[in-house]
Design goal:
CATH class: Alpha Beta
Mean pLDDT: 91
CATH superfamily: HAD superfamily/HAD-like
Number of domains: 1
Strand order of the largest sheet: 5-4-1-6-7
Shape: globular
Low-confidence stretches: 1-25
Radius of gyration: 24 Å
Largest sheet: 5 strands, parallel
Bound molecules: magnesium ion
Order of helices and strands: HHHEEHHEHEHEHEHEHH
Helix content: 40-55%
Oligomer: single chain
């Protein structure tokens, strides 16, 4: 009798725990770190107007940048560049093309980024212009400025990338101006060699990205080290370097867990929590 009662008791506790667990799960779906960022990118007026404001500010500076022959935005620019024709460099993903549909798929399917699914997405060519990007690149072209797209999409993705850009009328959407990772052996994920290739023939007056690496390669440090690099180039932001917000993914996220993607998802999440600097709370 005692045995039966105890067994029943244990069973009841297990059953109750299961119900509590199930109830909690039903009310609170599994957390996905990409939800709010992706929702913001895809649906918010706040994101779209921020992107439009970035490109509008740059457009207003075009005449000044073109007219001042000492004006350059590329750290790689050296030598006698003042007589070279002006150009701008823009990243592609989340800078001129909005891929929030892919991120939304990742979130709604509770899955993760993979190069295989990403390649399929790229070949669907359904990315849309980032708000303001088309207007800016057309204005630059109309001012005689060549437009280069330096992206870490991979070389085999060049044709669909060009097609996707052409679909909306982005200027200079061709093999020369779309510079992807791996097209040449030295073109790795680090963008300096590609910026170097552009500055060899052009004066780069502005650069655009959603990721620190779209401007400099000094991006792999700790959160604090990255802030130091940001401050080192404080005069560039909003004048020669234009950052688009991307709360969905980027080197800012991996900086919080030391760039170590081999860590478990749970560990990466813990590292991100630890990277924050919280208020001590209301106390008693
Ligand atoms: Mg990007």
């Amino acid at each position: 009798m005692t045995f039966i009662a105890r067994s029943f008791g244990v069973a009841a506790i297990v059953a109750t725990s299961a119900l509590v667990a199930f109830g909690a799960q039903a009310q609170e779906p599994a957390q996905n770190d990409g939800l709010n960022g992706t929702l913001w990118l895809q649906t918010s007026v706040e994101y779209k107007t921020t992107a439009m404001s970035v490109f509008a500010g740059a457009t207003r500076l075009l005449d000044a940048a073109i007219g001042d022959h000492s004006w350059t935005a590329a750290l790689e620019q050296d030598g006698n560049y003042m007589t070279k024709p002006p150009a701008v460099i823009l990243d592609v993903d989340e800078t001129v093309l909005d891929n929030s549909a892919y991120q939304a798929w990742v979130v709604t399917e509770s899955t993760y980024y993979s190069s295989k699914t990403w390649a399929k997405f790229v070949h669907d060519m359904i990315s849309t212009p980032t708000p303001g990007a088309l207007e800016f690149t057309k204005a630059a072209a109309a001012h005689g400025v060549e437009v280069f797209y330096v992206s870490n999409r991979k070389a085999p993705e060049e044709a669909p990338t060009i097609e996707n850009l052409k679909k909306y009328g982005f200027p200079f959407a061709d093999e020369k101006h779309v510079m992807l990772r791996g097209e040449i052996e030295t073109w790795g994920s680090n963008k300096t060699p590609r910026r170097q290739a552009v500055v060899d023939d052009y004066r780069v007056i502005m650069m655009f990205g959603d990721n620190f690496g779209d401007f400099t390669d000094e991006i792999d440090g700790t959160v604090a080290e990255r802030l130091d690099v940001m401050n080192k180039y404080s005069t560039y932001w909003g004048e020669r370097w234009f950052m688009l917000p991307n709360p969905s993914y980027g080197s800012w996220e991996s900086a919080a867990f030391g760039g170590d993607w081999k860590k478990s998802g749970e560990q990466r999440r813990q590292d991100k929590l630890d990277a924050m600097d919280p208020w001590a709370g209301p106390g008693e």
